[in-house]
Amino acid sequence: MKKRMSLTTKKLFIPIGLSIAAFIFFATQSDTYATAANISTILREMATPLLVSCGMCFVMAAGYIDLSVGAMAAFICMVASRMIDAGIPVSLILVLMVAVGTGCGFVNGFLIRAFRLHPFVGTLAMMSVYRGLTWIISYRNANGSAYAVQITDRAIQNLNRAVSLGSVKLYYSLITALVCMVICQIVFMKTKFGSNIYAMGANQRAAELTGIKVGAVEGCAYMCCGALTGVCAIFLLARSQCATTTMGTGLEFDAISALVVGGASAMGASETAGKANPVGAAFGALFLYMVYNGIYKLGLPTAFQQIIQGGALILMMMVDSIVTMVRLRNQERRYGLEQEKIMQGDVSNG
What we know:
Elements: H1 7-29, H2 36-61, H3 69-85, H4 90-114, H5 119-136, E1 149-150, H6 154-158, E2 162-165, E3 168-171, H7 172-190, H8 192-202, H9 204-209, H10 214-240, E4 242-243, H11 251-261, H12 278-297, H13 303-349
Antiparallel strand pairs: 1-4, 2-3
Helix pairs in contact: 1-12, 2-7, 2-8, 2-10, 2-11, 2-12, 3-4, 3-5, 3-10, 4-10, 7-8, 8-10, 11-12, 11-13, 12-13
């Protein structure tokens, strides 16, 4: 019997089709868009949001959200900058950056679970906390104003390098993001942890009744998100070569947009809605950054990036809502027909 394609797989065709359409459109409008150098730039730009999107997959698939990832990345970068000044070995600093991110994720998950905070409000509050902590440990002049400090460590700077694939450059950040994407996809598809996350996203109460420790799974989901935000912070620091209090601004919106455009549902991970998955996030990030780059190439104001990002997010959520309603209606209709057949059978037997 032929296996039916899942809704999550079907939804992957949307960002793939959008990416192809965007590439064709902008390539015909700008002579420099389809060049190897520009393609390399697009791939580099999408790498850091993709890393965060992979982490956000764990949170959104479980039915939660994390709005603090951008501020968390800034905090991690500032902590790393202080550690570099203290003379701590770079190899240890990189490990500690991921550890700090994991710890921040643990704090987020603990607060939401222990005090029954709404994930949106709780992580929004933590976003403000992380921004405040970043400012407190930042470098300030005599007037008390924070300023950026250049990262001169050669090992950190080398992380912004690339390997050549023909004429296209594949930056270390992109390679790392793709490796993380594959690992996360395997976790979702092949491990009990991944299936538990999807079960929670579909129905948390039902998942709890089946024996899933929802508190532990939720905490691990936020810790995974924090850990990958720490990895993202490594490459943000390597690329900017400085730590500022405004780093990571808007990163959370890019990550969520990539996931939603990639087919994730804001309603969890039920069978009537698309499940958050890293591969979908990759195609979603690719589409968004192809559009951002195209807008820049056409000389349009950067405000158009925000309009398109918000518009794409609303459109995909509308599509998701419509698809969910249609599938639920079809399920109800099938259930009604089955009940009618059962009743007719009982009448005939009687």
